[in-house]
Write the structure tokens for this entry.
Amino acid sequence: MIAVPVEAIEAWLLVTQAIVDPGHGSLYAENEDRRHFKQRLYGRPAATRRDVEEIALPMIRGMSTGDLIQLSNTSQSFRLFSDQVTAYRAQIIGKTDCW
């Protein structure tokens, strides 16, 4: 199981948005007030499943390798998360129980 605070994911999405669609999102989202992240991403104070399916997922799926590298270079928390996933990838996708 991997646990990531929703606010961290929303910050990563705002950084991603700034990378793939310059002029939108924010390269500095990790340093900003998190209260309005959903409003900025989805245009509403709470995300619906449709918002995730129609806004977040297409943006993520449309990222190039260069976009992902730029996200890692821009967002320290994403880089740390990515490094941990990479380090434990075999256990994460393996068939053995982590306990």
